[in-house]
Amino acid sequence: MKQVMVIGAGPAGLFAAIHAARTEAKVKILEKKDRPARKLLITGKGRCNLTNQADVQELIENIPGNGEFLYSAFYRFTNYQLVEFFNSLGVRTKIERGGRVFPESDKAVEVVDALVKHVKNSGIEIICNAQVDEIIAGNGQVKGVRLKDKEILLCDSLILATGGMSYPATGSTGDGYRMVQELGHTIISPKPSLVPLAAKESWVKELQGLSLKNVAIKILYKERKVLYEDFGEMLFTHFGVSGPIIISSSRHLLDMFYSDGKLREVNDDVKLFIDLKPALTPEKLDDRVQRDFLKYTNKQFKNALVDLLPNKLIPVIIALSGIKPDKMINQITKPERTNLVQILKKLEIIIKGFRPIEEAIVTAGGVKTDEINPSTMESKLINGLFFAGEIIDVDGYTGGYNLQIAFSTGYLAGISCGQEDGTRCKKD
């Protein structure tokens, strides 16, 4: 019986193990942490955005990091098959805005528990607190692994699913990069993808924790080239901005902020503009402000914006407007009001950089795709070595695309590594 070893018990590793076991191989999973799938538990803010209902072409289009490499994986194991798989385990799903697929329970733990239970029911052994230090290979063939405690475990095939470098507390610390580099593989420098952005302005700290819904953003380079536009929810933090539309924007800024894997200076050329009232034209917003001013005509300016803005945002907008907080509403001039409207429609923030890769949802970079067979996920350099998930140099936008990458590549690696001659895989 063929011996298959999987390094990493994340979504890609668990899925690879499940499908390797279906080829009648004996499968063992090595996990460095004390429990499997720790990162999966926090995906989608703990709700687990399993996949997206888009067709294959649209999936590829939403994977800016080498999406074309995934055609075989996505066709061999589709998003619809993924939903059917989880439904068969008792995990019912639902579709939300943008085609995002979630468990009906909104609980990632349900997904994790179902996966782990299925792994164990498949006769797969999960060994936790087992940190692999080295992949052993000879004559271009995988032989096994050496653990941190020097113990050697032998295998016929090995699936590397160690993830990238985001959220290192969950176990993704880049160990896999080092191990395959030692075998001759090329690693494209890891960079943070889907990550919060750092702002230059000090006033953003005053808004820490403030969430804005239904706002429009536009990110410009030198105030001319549009780098990104979106509508939705964002969040102010002590360092800058975060939230869904900000996280999505970061992948579009990656090439602007990184060169050869290193963060580069962009001066003050990248600016975020927030439209706080996107449903209103400037003229309509001016009418709205005038109505509020009429309502609070005998009050001070600082007390006249309560119907228009969140309380936490009011002092910042007042300071940016240049209007004295104690100025009476009936004394505010038309130019001052026009300037206020402009700020509300185009709140400006200078983006000075990305947050560290440890805070990224996904890592861009990893094992060079040219060195992996896209039809099997097997290394072109080392026989019996397969890759699955984030360790590969592929990454997508938010919306379920990255988990679909994990599951589809895990599936393909699993069914490929367990087979002797390509005919032993049981019917799925």
CATH superfamily of the largest domain, by name, is FAD/NAD(P)-binding domain
Structural class: alpha+beta
Q: What is the CATH domain class of the largest domain? A: Alpha Beta
- Please bin the fraction of helical residues: 25-40%
Q: Report the CATH architecture of the largest domain.
A: 3-Layer(bba) Sandwich
* Terminal CA distance: 20 Å
Mean pLDDT across the residues is 94
Structure write-up:
The protein is an alpha+beta fold. The protein has two domains: 3-192 and 363-417, FAD/NAD(P)-binding domain (3-Layer(bba) Sandwich); 196-354, Helicase, Ruva Protein, domain 3, CATH 1.10.8.50. Helix content is 28%, strand content 25%. The chain contains eleven helices and 21 strands. The chain has helices spanning 11-21, 56-61, 71-76, 79-88, 108-121, 175-181, 244-257, 282-295, 314-321, 334-345, 401-417, and strands at residues 3-7, 26-30, 51-52, 93-96, 100-103, 125-127, 132-138, 141-147, 152-154, 157-160, 187-193, 197-199, 211-221, 225-236, 240-242, 258-259, 262-263, 270-275, 347-354, 362-367, 385-387. β8 (141-147) and β9 (152-154) form a beta hairpin. Mean pLDDT is 94; it is low at 421-428.
